[in-house]
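User: Here's a structure from my thesis project, written as structure tokens. My advisor, Dr. K., wants to see whether a designed sequence matches the one we expressed. Can you design one independently, without my sequence as a hint?
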């Protein structure tokens, strides 16, 4: 009997496994892919997320690999209309770490192998599960298609927004598709921004620009639904910079959505990360939300595995955890929605008024610090 079986080998699932192993529990992580996809859409790790990664022993090495974004610019009509400085933040890491998610996953897998070489099972696909008094019976398929099974005290769905665990449990995922569409790509660095992030507030729609390691820069542009567009041409027209279409290393078109489960705890099956709450990627808060889910859940699973904790007590602590974490995700979703609204096309006659308003608001240091705290998620507490 395994204490905890985690379906999904992304950052939140791997981090939860490491926290549980540290507490002395038996853990298995099932991941349908044997390798790590190099097509990394997620790149931002916020200060609270880095603190969680510090807890499991990988924060320092990841911080050395990535770019420390400590400053952000808002640019309109070739002029800086807003600046955010993250250096004042009262946290261990006063920056957003820009690092492709595949690098984070690789390091977490390495750390998991150091802690327990048998914990990670790549190329194993979750199929279904049944609940029994005190345990879950989980059926899987190996890379060769051969069936297998595990029995576990707790089953964790950490398998993303299309969670097979959530679907097999027939748990509704409520919310809506948002009207915003984006193009995204990684190109050789062609700006003089260095480690600074830049948001270009163009009347046709926002263009976001983030530094990456390995001499790359990510560009993200708002586009109209159904628009056939070339990201390189959009970057040139809206920003004046060059994104060489022949040299991009990642290219994607994506939609946005906000969706949530009603609760993340379902008896001995629990959901974390995108499996429980899909937050629009504008703002890049999804990874950090999942890491914070894992950090908060690990000690509660230890209590649930204790022979001295009653079933009623277990249900109460998990219900409380679910409520707190869903509120945090909904708060992040509201911020992401505001970010998207600010990035939509704007009548050229209103651009001057918008820019003046932004300058006026950010002239207040108190307001600037509040905005910086929100963008970096330092208002999402990491419990000591």
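Assistant: Designed independently from the structure alone:
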């Amino acid at each position: 009997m395994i204490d905890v079986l985690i379906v999904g080998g992304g950052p939140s699932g791997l981090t939860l496994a490491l926290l549980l192993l540290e507490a002395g529990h038996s853990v298995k992580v099932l991941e349908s892919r044997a390798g790590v996809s190099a097509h990394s859409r997620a790149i931002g790790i916020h200060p609270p997320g880095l603190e969680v990664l510090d807890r499991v022993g990988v924060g320092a090495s990841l911080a050395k690999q990535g770019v420390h974004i400590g400053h952000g610019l808002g640019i309109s009509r070739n002029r800086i209309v807003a600046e955010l400085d993250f250096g004042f933040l009262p946290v261990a890491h006063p920056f957003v770490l820009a690092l492709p998610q595949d690098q984070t996953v690789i390091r977490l897998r390495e750390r998991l192998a150091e802690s327990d070489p048998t914990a990670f099972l790549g190329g194993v696909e979750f199929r279904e599960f049944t609940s029994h008094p005190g345990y879950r019976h989980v059926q899987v398929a190996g890379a060769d298609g051969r069936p297998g099974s595990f029995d576990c005290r707790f089953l964790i769905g950490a398998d993303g927004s299309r969670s097979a665990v959530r679907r097999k449990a027939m748990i509704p995922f409520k919310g809506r598709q948002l009207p915003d569409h984006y193009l995204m790509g990684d190109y050789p660095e062609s700006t003089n921004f260095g480690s600074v992030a830049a948001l270009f507030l163009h009347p046709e729609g926002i263009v976001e620009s983030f530094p990456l390691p390995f001499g790359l820069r990510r560009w993200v542009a708002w586009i109209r639904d159904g628009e056939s567009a070339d990201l390189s041409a959009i970057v040139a027209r809206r920003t004046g910079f060059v994104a060489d279409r022949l040299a991009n290393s990642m290219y994607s078109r994506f939609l946005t959505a906000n969706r949530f489960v009603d609760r993340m705890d379902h008896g001995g099956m629990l959901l974390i990360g995108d499996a429980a709450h899909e937050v629009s990627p504008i703002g890049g808060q999804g990874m950090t939300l999942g890491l914070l889910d894992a950090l908060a859940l690990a000690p509660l699973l230890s209590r649930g595995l204790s022979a001295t904790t009653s079933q009623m007590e277990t249900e109460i602590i998990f219900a409380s955890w679910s409520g707190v974490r869903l509120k945090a995700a909904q708060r992040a979703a509201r911020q992401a929605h505001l970010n998207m609204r600010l990035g939509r096309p704007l009548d050229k006659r209103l651009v001057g008024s918008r820019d003046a308003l932004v300058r006026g608001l950010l002239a207040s240091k108190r307001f600037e610090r509040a905005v910086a705290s929100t963008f970096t998620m330092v208002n999402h507490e990491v419990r000591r």
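When you compare it with your expressed construct, this may help: The longest helix spans residues 311-342.
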